[in-house]
Amino acid sequence: MRIVIFILGIFFSFLLSCKKNTNSPVSPRLKLIQHGWNVLSVRTFLPNGSNYILLNDYQFFRSDNLQITQTKDIFSTIYDTSKYMLLTDDSTLLFYPIQNGVQSLTADTGIIQTINESLFVYYFRQNGFINFIDSLKR
């Protein structure tokens, strides 16, 4: 009986000491997203039915789930940061804005329209209407 307990103890010690892989697998779609993207356009739709196109410069989706948007104007360069998450449906992105180092508890929901090696298009809905569309290219 002591031998059985001893062998079971060694077996469980071995199982507990094995290195565990804590990294979750990355979906192929998330791998496509996690790059630097040049902004083709950001099209914003206004409540009065008109819309305008705003050209930003760059969006970078890092592998630590930070999205950094760089916008330049004549006088300065502005950086906006959000924490992003791709949901299991592989089509919904949640963006949690970060301001003054504090992450918002409320997410903006983006829907991926197109993603491939060279083009990434996603849009945001607000009150059932498309609010704006980001078109990005590598």
Description:
The protein is of the alpha+beta class. Helices cover 16% and strands 51% of the residues. An eight-stranded antiparallel beta barrel has the order 1-3-4-5-6-8-9-10. The longest helix is centred in the first third of the chain and has 16 residues, at 2-17. It is globular and about 80 Å long. The model has no long low-confidence stretch (mean pLDDT 79).
Task: Considering the chains and any ligands shown, give keywords for the structure.
single chain, alpha+beta
Summarize the SSE layout with pairings:
Blueprint: H1 2-17, H2 28-33, E1 36-45, E2 51-54, E3 58-61, E4 66-72, E5 77-86, E6 92-99, E7 102-103, E8 108-115, E9 119-126, E10 129-137
Antiparallel strand pairs: 1-2, 1-3, 1-10, 3-4, 4-5, 5-6, 6-7, 6-8, 8-9, 9-10
